[in-house]
Design a protein that fits this description.
Number of helices: 7
Helix content: 55-70%
Structural class: alpha/beta
CATH architecture: 3-Layer(aba) Sandwich
Order of helices and strands: EHEHHEHHEHH
CATH superfamily: P-loop containing nucleotide triphosphate hydrolases
Distance between the termini: 26 Å
Number of strands: 4
């Protein structure tokens, strides 16, 4: 059984996954720093959006395949393919979104659906407070308007 946790930036995904890990789930944690485009995206979103989104999607897909191959009874991931699609729908358009969607549809077909998706929500203001508290330099330019747009995409 695979549980994927989705939500906005700093919504509590990793915190919940750690709690479930402590309860005996096999936890898989996103390693966002391994995405070579993550920092570049925050410096120049328009230039690096496609690279960032497709890399995160493929990293998560690979992680979920690894979890599937491990045959663990209860797996929890602090990321979700649904989350990747939501971010792509905000950050990509035109041919880039079409290419992302084609890859996402193919990969999701190969992987199959999770047993459960947990969607965490909190206000954009609370997310921004948490982002400021964790003090990642790359995230200092994030605005509540961006966080709100991501939240609306999840709800749509």
């Amino acid at each position: 059984m695979r549980i994927e946790i989705c939500g906005g930036i700093a919504s509590g995904k990793t915190t919940l996954a750690r709690c479930l890990d402590d309860a005996g789930f096999a936890a898989y944690f996103e390693n966002f720093q391994s995405n070579p485009f993550w920092k570049l995206f925050y410096e120049n979103p328009g230039r690096y959006a496609f690279e960032t989104e497709i890399t995160f999607f493929l990293q998560h897909y690979s992680q979920f395949r690894d979890a599937q191959d491990a045959n663990a009874d209860h797996v929890v991931c602090d990321s979700s393919l649904l989350q990747d699609v939501a971010y792509a729908n905000v950050n990509l358009a035109g041919p880039c979104l079409a290419a992302f969607t084609a890859v996402a549809n193919a990969a999701q077909g190969l992987l199959g659906p999770p047993a459960l998706v947990v969607h965490l929500t909190c206000s954009a203001e609370e997310e921004l407070r948490r982002i400021r508290a964790r003090a990642r330099d790359e995230e200092r330019g994030i605005q509540t308007s961006y966080l709100g747009t991501i939240r609306l995409t999840y709800q749509g």
